[in-house]
Amino acid sequence: MTMLRSCLERCFGRLGYGDELFWYQDLKPHTSGEFSIAVVQANSTLEDQGQVVSTPFATFIGVYDGHGGPDAARFVNAQLFPHFSKFAMEQNGVSADVIRKAIVATEEEFLHLVKRSFPFKPQIASVGSCCLVGAITEDTLYVANLGDSRAVLGRCATPDGKEVVAERLTSDHNVADVEIRKELKKLHPDESDIVVHTRGVWRIKGIIQVSRSIGDAYLKKPEFSRDPLFPPHIFPTSPLKRSVMTAEPSILTRKLKPDDLFLIFASDGFWEQLTDEAAVEIVSKYPRSGIAKRLLRAALEEAAKKMEMRVNDMKRIRKGVRRHFHDDITVIVIFLDHNLRNANSPNFKAMNYKSINTPADIFSLHSHESESRLRPEP
């Protein structure tokens, strides 16, 4: 039994530290270093998805924070990397354009799925996902973002290596940011309700906080915006004239330096609890082994503190109800071991990929079942 359990944990990850909604995968190798992942579920169905794919030409990282249901995040988890790989091989290299094309292709396929499914499953039009993607190839890092998941770099700030500082690599596409609200008002001067303060926060059309995503067809295409089966809180405050959201990613390209030590990719549920600086301090102070799990535990402890309760008591709360205490959280830590970077040219023909995906649901490790249902038609 012990041997079987050990084998399953190596293959699928582990349930975490007395919390049946907690899953983690400890240190695994990637193209130029090591990484670990941890996830905690709060919703009735896990809406976060994440993956790390190590290939002969790049390390690919994805965090997909779904909303309105798991369908979009699962779809992106299944389809985005194949598009990335296809375009990278066609262009014989990784670039910002390759990542943009992969995201656009994934968006188009998901909207096609929505169109096919809408007559018998209209709710799929209100499902979407934030999308945070990283790609590391040779000495270059690419980070693309839709929504408010975030990537943060930890780098040495002093010659002796004792001070490690946080550098945020992404901008949050969230109307909590006054600049995002100004941008939307400028794009929609004839719509006084383009951003509305309701239920305690700013929302686009009184509905959603993020301004960029994959999916959310009902806020991108008028024909999907007024289905009578939608709950009242997801009706736009006025009829949709044109798209009020976009799937155009913000993309950063950065040459990696010897002082760049590690990356933290995480969904917004994590950053709601910990600052960039606090997360980087934890990674820099503690051993690599178990580091993603340690970060997630710190986030849960902070969530419990805000609710004036013990974290052990919060861990006993069942999924669904748990969402009142914190969001689904995914965190991936990528260590950058510069001495391991391949000095040879990337091999775009080799197909020996190694992929770690978070489970579709903490209670089910059969993520392929969900993915197969959502694959687009040929």
Automatic annotation (TrEMBL):
One of its GO terms (molecular function) is metal ion binding. Gene3D superfamilies: PPM-type phosphatase domain. Residues 31-336 form the PPM-type phosphatase domain. Its cofactor is Mg(2+); Mn(2+). It catalyses: O-phospho-L-threonyl-[protein] + H2O = L-threonyl-[protein] + phosphate; O-phospho-L-seryl-[protein] + H2O = L-seryl-[protein] + phosphate. CDD domains: PP2Cc (cd00143). Pfam families: PP2C. Belongs to the PP2C family. This is protein-serine/threonine phosphatase. It comes from Dendrobium thyrsiflorum (Pinecone-like raceme dendrobium).
